[in-house]
Write a structure and sequence with these properties.
With 234 residues, the first copy, chain A, is of the alpha/beta class. Chain A has seven helices and ten strands. Chain A has a five-stranded parallel beta sheet, with helices on both faces. Chain A has a five-stranded mixed beta sheet with strand order 6-7-10-8-9, sandwiched between helices. Chains A and B meet through helix 1, strand 5, helix 5 and strand 6 of A and helix 1, strand 5, helix 5 and strand 6 of B.
């Protein structure tokens, strides 16, 4: 009997924003894996550090710095092999995913390698999307609103097109793309409908007006929510 | 000292999919309010029924059947007045929201009436979006994908436009709009990229091929996820 692979969403950062199901499973699994940078701590692990059990086998899936955005297939191959050995031995494996496993996560690279061979179960997590809306006290969408979730990595043209076709937008993964996004929002006269937040739900969460932000300081975990209530953008 | 208004996401239906924070707060509040139909039980209350405390004051915000989709202002006025009395008396009030408070919820009608007068805090919840992706074992979005969340209530033309501008789509609130959506997906040659699910995370959760569904049986809590991996729709 092989073990089960669990993809477990651990939410946006506040340890209290994991679900009861995630907590039960991540404590029950004898093996816990999580993404991490080449050196230094893992954000996903840090979120749930207080819940881990000292007897658990931990697997840090370390991504070389220069490849963190474009996952190295070899790293996931190696992690899948390591997890396979535990699963074959009947040990359940929890893979920790910041936010939600299927919402811009790296979990899909393990899922694609393992789900067809082992029983697999996914536990959804609180996404940065709703965490940011809650922290900003801003209704994300209501009634017949169309919401677009847009990575800031898109080109200016693509950003313009996307923003033209929705009522509300969440622009994610800002980082070094912030200036481009701020410019496009200004061109579309959307600045006054945009709210900026970084590190939502963490102790150093910051909310500031768009105009006051130094583009050189914007982290990857920053988001802009846009909503023109009562007047569709299209 | 007035009480605090909490908007609490209780997730998609499985009682284990609420967060630790939601559980702590909904138990600690002496007053618990929730939306309900004119007669019959409240879905939001049912999700957390096992966690409620017998001494809590409960307020069912009952929506007349014919107005369930277009909220009656008078109903929310009355509920806000009732909650205000408790908040003025220093009692914290939890408003239960299925899914997430700011993701197509009715909470915004109370938020708009009360948040400027009382301390207010929002606890994000697991949305149907990630719950459905988890149950379908389908990656929602990755890397630079654009995700559009589209209410099925839109016109055929609007649905076509929206689906043309995203990599992945979640089509919500299907109910009696199912046939229209299925037709548009077929026209756009997206049927083979679409997955259907109803009542995600509940005991009677159902996943079926699009072609096999009787449109007369589709509930409001049904969703279609569309993803054409590796080939943008636009």
């Amino acid at each position: 009997m092989s073990g089960t692979l669990y993809g477990i969403g651990v939410g946006p950062g506040d340890p209290e924003l994991i679900t009861l199901k995630a907590l039960r499973l991540l404590r029950a699994c004898p093996v816990v894996a999580y993404p991490a940078l080449e050196t230094g701590p893992s954000f996903a692990r840090a979120i749930v550090a207080e819940y881990l059990v000292s007897t658990q086998i931990e697997i840090a899936i370390r991504m070389p710095m220069e490849e963190a955005r474009f996952p190295a297939q070899a790293v996931y191959d190696r992690a899948a092999t390591e997890l396979s050995a535990h699963l074959d031995a009947g040990r359940d494996c929890a893979v920790l995913c910041q936010g939600d496993p299927f919402f811009y996560g790296s979990f899909m690279y393990l899922f694609d390698r393992l789900a067809s061979s082992y029983p697999t179960s996914i536990v959804p997590g609180i996404t940065s999307l709703t965490a940011c809306a809650a922290a900003l006290q801003a209704t994300l969408v209501s009634r017949s609103d169309v919401l677009s979730v847009i990575p800031a990595t898109l080109s200016e043209d693509a950003l313009r097109t996307q923003l033209a076709h929705c009522d509300a937008a969440a622009i994610m993964k800002l980082g070094r793309h912030f200036s481009k996004v701020r410019t496009v929002l200004a061109e579309l006269d959307l600045t006054q409908h945009a709210k900026y937040i970084e590190r939502a739900t963490l102790p150093d969460q910051t909310i500031r007006p768009l105009a006051e932000i130094d583009p050189d300081t914007v982290p990857y975990f920053a988001m802009i929510l846009v909503h023109r209530r009562g007047s569709a953008l299209a």
